[in-house]
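debug: dumping io for the single-chain case to check the tokenizer round-trip. Nothing else runs in this session.
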Amino acid sequence: MFYHPFKKTITLKSGKELKRWYYWWKDPITGVQHQKIIPDVSNRADAYAYINNLPDPTEIKKKVTVKEVAYNMFIPGGEHIERLSMLGKKLNPRTITNYRGFINLIIKEFGNVYLDELTIPMVNGYLMNLTEKSGSWKNSYLETLNHIYKEAPWHCKTTIVKPDFPRFARNSKKADIFTQEELVQFFDGANWIDGLREYLLFLVMASCGLRLGEARALRTKQFIPESHALIIDGFCERDGHRTNYNKKGSDEDQKLRVTLVPDDTMRLVQNYIKSHYLSEDDFIFQRDDGRPLRQEFLESVFHRVIIKAGIDSTDRKLCPHSFRFTYVTRMRRKVDAETVQKMVGHSSVEMTEYYTRAAIPEMVSSIQDVLPAVNGLFS
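debug: decoded output
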């Protein structure tokens, strides 16, 4: 028997006490015990007659809360991660940690809501009130919520239809690009007294279209002077950890790429490596303890040089990433978009292949005819 009748005494507002019949049962999905009043019965026989006409709770439409589905998601070594792996979806630890952070936020706000009762006004209305959060952050929240709907079939027998949650516009302003004159001003040697290390890092970024994390992660062995080439095979996260894969990559799919280095920049880099006695695994732009330069330090150096060089940044977003935007803009004037895309590592629907170390010679060879454009990039 799933339902259990019982009698209990209740006290009315008037103070009068009455005996009423109730029944209790346990939810077959959650194990939570519930109780309800049996209306219009006064004896045990009628109470049993009532519960005998109730539907079998194991056949009732199964409802699950957001928390019941999400509680064990994106936990390293957990069933959810193992299931994703078996389905061919491998996530790196950083991605898992990011998803888990959003899972915790979703549980905190909507954990006790039944998943099939979650609505667009509830979710998007909540996100709209988070005025301090960017559109990209809110979209990541929605993406994590989508994963909860995908996980739901493993927790209930009924299909739960996911609402078509509207996406938020990205409200972050893209980095502005440098003019030719501003590049000359920025790399004027007068602004870099005792700053060859930082000067060279930013020069490599500007010459090769690197992200700041990729430049911080550069090691001696990534430069191939005889081929004018640079292998980008990882980046440094803000905390200094160096990955062995590029942005949007993973241990299994590294998104490795190759680009070309202007002759003048390559010569300066090789001289720097030789004068500092760097081995092939050493970070080129390192602190005294051998670790890569901190991102915050480089950002502060960048802004000091901008001011010292007299570059007007009023109503403009000039940041280290501006070198990458500038590189792409200038290279596309000289080279077809597909080649530039390969060199800077942009992903798109059209570009689905990923590279392995075995393909490096072919990658280098395929872009050799671009070298004149690279050497003339800032001329």
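debug: round-trip ok. The CA atoms of residues 226 and 266 lie 10 Å apart.
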